[in-house]
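Field log, afternoon session.

UNIT: design team B
ACTIVITY: writing a sequence onto a fixed backbone
BACKBONE:
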């Protein structure tokens, strides 16, 4: 059985605390003298990443299909170096991955010009965004990431969109609005079921609304276990999405 580094992904809604946790985690891996590397998607430093950055800041308009493919291409740019690092025994920690790609794109709906219906508080009538048809089919959103290296562990920091929306800096970028984030959260739940059904590594949901330290400890327990499995050869070779 090959020994290798663990491929760990942190996912969640915007402002769920991923980036803070990722940098704390990399520090702990460092302190424990576990060779590790932190990467982040979108990687805004590459030419493709710069275009994505401009799109997210609403400085550029890009067709929804095209931007989806660019997000995926931005991962493919790093795919072979991820595998190389894992095989060299380096634990790769990744802040967002293909699951964000699917969740954020498949949750897009056509902007509605129609005025919103008035729904009384406490009413069970579904709000409009739940009935609007998706702009991009789910299976189409999934396909460009097929064959990317598969994570061994995905930690999903779950937070209610309403709580995330109150955190500092929220609303600066495209997608940072509660209606979209609600749909993204539903999509993540569907993705987690598929990850489990298809055995694409482990998917762990942690409460991102807890105290920072508590979340950090919970992540650390999961990651330490994945690292151990890698060192002891239990992870096997690097798998691919969605083998
Ligand atoms: P960030 O806030 O982690 O930098 O991510 C930027 C935004 O891009 C965030 O709203 C999630 C979204 N996104 C996608 O739409 N597709 C993707 O493939 C990725 C990685 C992120
Ligand atoms: Mg963001």
């Amino acid at each position: 059985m090959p020994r290798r580094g663990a491929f760990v992904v942190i996912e969640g809604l915007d402002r769920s605390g991923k980036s803070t946790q990722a940098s704390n985690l990399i520090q702990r891996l460092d302190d424990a003298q576990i060779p590790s590397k932190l990467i982040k998607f979108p990687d805004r430093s590459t030419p493709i990443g710069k275009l994505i950055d401009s799109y997210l800041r609403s400085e550029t308009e890009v067709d929804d299909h095209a931007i989806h493919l660019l997000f995926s291409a931005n991962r493919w740019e790093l795919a072979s170096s991820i595998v190389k690092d894992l095989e060299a025994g380096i634990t790769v920690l990744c802040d967002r991955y293909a699951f964000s790609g699917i969740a954020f794109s498949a949750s897009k709906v056509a902007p509605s010009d129609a005025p919103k219906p008035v729904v009384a508080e406490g009413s069970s009538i579904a709000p409009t965004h739940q009935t609007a048809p998706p702009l991009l089919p789910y299976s189409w959103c999934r396909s460009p990431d097929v064959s990317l290296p598969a994570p061994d562990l995905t930690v999903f920091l779950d937070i209610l969109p309403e709580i995330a929306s109150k955190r500092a800096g929220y609303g600066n970028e495209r997608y940072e609005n509660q209606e979209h984030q609600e749909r993204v959260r539903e999509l993540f739940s569907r993705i987690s079921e598929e990850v489990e059904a298809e055995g694409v590594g482990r998917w762990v949901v942690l409460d991102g609304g807890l105290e920072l330290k508590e979340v950090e400890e919970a992540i650390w327990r999961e990651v330490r276990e994945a690292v151990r499995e890698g060192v002891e050869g239990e992870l096997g070779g690097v798998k691919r999405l969605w083998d």
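LOG NOTE: The chain has a mean pLDDT of 94.
NEXT ACTIVITY: expression trials, pending approval
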